[in-house]
């Protein structure tokens, strides 16, 4: 990062404190995911029926669930799984979608139109319903959740890369690269793709939040991660049965963790857009 970019980033963060808060929140979630197993006070899957449904206290910061498991410990461990699913799925969809979209936007013609129509057909379906269908067909294992989430994220990156490369494929520096003997393959991978990556970083941040919500949604309806594995969607689904009896903490804490993770990634994406937008460099 150059000094000019760093100064511009600091200027954006000072003018938009929410972006700084979002960056701090994302950093906190990442640290929790990395060091979670070493900071939890209890084993997140061990039951203790004698302590079932205890409200938040000094011994159990977020209370206990219907099996006596510590809710705080399960929240912390679930962060690693949810972030791992989101990062893996978005990483796969970004790597494939960016390359496919870039080559299609560069080549144009029939290939570009065919891929464009395929993307339009995919986006015509409700993407969460499409993910439900794929997980139901493949089985609700973690790797299948990652695959389904990656597939429904593909259209965003293909469309974005196609559009960005399409407007750059005939600019001067691309023509100069071709004139110097660079192959079409090299022009796309060495010149065009790196040029659009900063703008795609915004889409990555937004999709990470959506991928977390998608994984939790699948678990909530029973098509995601299987119990007793700690996962935010499962915890909300299990706690929903006890809302009417006043055990609010079973839903409130995992729901709050899910909301804050999605919100932080979305706000971070908005901030990255301002940082990377050349029109903001005044």
UniProtKB/TrEMBL annotation:
Residue span(s) of domain ABC transmembrane type-1: 79-269
Keyword Methyltransferase part of the UniProt annotation: no
Protein keywords: Cell membrane, Membrane, Peptide transport, Protein transport, Transmembrane, Transmembrane helix, Transport
Listed InterPro entries: BP-dependent_transpt_permease, MetI-like, MetI-like_sf, OppC_N
Location of the protein in the cell: Cell membrane
Main location: membrane
The keyword Transmembrane helix is annotated on this UniProt entry: yes
Membrane-topology annotation of the record: Multi-pass membrane protein
Spans traversing the lipid bilayer: 20-40, 83-106, 118-138, 144-160, 204-225, 248-269
Gene3D superfamilies: MetI-like
Matching PANTHER family: D,D-DIPEPTIDE TRANSPORT SYSTEM PERMEASE PROTEIN DDPC-RELATED (PTHR43386:SF1), OLIGOPEPTIDE TRANSPORT SYSTEM PERMEASE PROTEIN APPC (PTHR43386)
Family indicated by similarity: Belongs to the binding-protein-dependent transport system permease family.
Protein name (Swiss-Prot/TrEMBL): ABC transporter permease
Lineage start: Bacteria, Pseudomonadati, Pseudomonadota, Alphaproteobacteria, Hyphomicrobiales
